[in-house]
What does this fold into?
Amino acid sequence: QQQVKQSPQSLIVQKGGISIINCAYENTAFDYFPWYQQFPGKGPALLIAIRPDVSEKKEGRFTISFNKSAKQFSLHIMDSQPGDSATYFCAASKSSYKLIFGSGTRLLVRP
Amino acid sequence: EAGVVQSPRYKIIEKKQPVAFWCNPISGHNTLYWYRQNLGQGPELLIRYENEEAVDDSQLPKDRFSAERLKGVDSTLKIQPAELGDSAVYLCASSLRTDEAFFGQGTRLTVV
It folds into this structure.
C-alpha cells in the first residue's frame, strides 16, 4: 500500500512535443504529490507539487493532473526542450514527511 | 542561499570497512533526511530528524547503519561494516516547512 507505480520507464520525445509521465498510488492517506527532476550526478530537485484538493496545477510548461478517484496523477511537459532531458520521479506522502518515490522515468528530448 | 552540502561526493571502500557521510543542511532548516538511491531507482528514506531528534528511523538498518545530528544542524551517516549491497547514492535533504525537501548532490558509495 506504500508503493507508487510510475510509467513509462523511459520516454523519447521530439523537441516541441508533449511529454507525459504517469503515476498511481494505493494509500488514500497520501495528501502531497510532488514531481522531482534529476540530472546525472545531481540530487533530485522539486519541479512542481499538488495536493488532492485541486485536479490540476500548472507552472510554466509543467502541469500536474490529479485524479483522486482513480488514485492517479500525471506530469505533462508542454513544448518539451532538449534541456528537459533528465530523470523524473513522482512521489507521494502523508503530510509531506516521508516521500515515497516512484521508480523514475528517463526522458530524452531529441532536437 | 547555499544549498544542502554533502561530502564526500564519491567514496570507494572495500567490504567490511567503515564509511561516513556528512551533510550540512540549508541554514534554518530544522528537518533533515537521509535517503538511499539505488541505481535506476527512486530514493528511499533511511532516517528523518526534527532538530536533533530522530523521529523516523524505521527504514534504517540498525545493525550496521547509524546516524547522528548533533546540535540539530550537521548530520553524519555511518555504515560499519559496509557490504557490497550498500553501494548506492546517499542523499541528504532538508526542509523548513513540511512541503518542500531540498536535496544535496549526494555521495556515491562503491563497495568492492
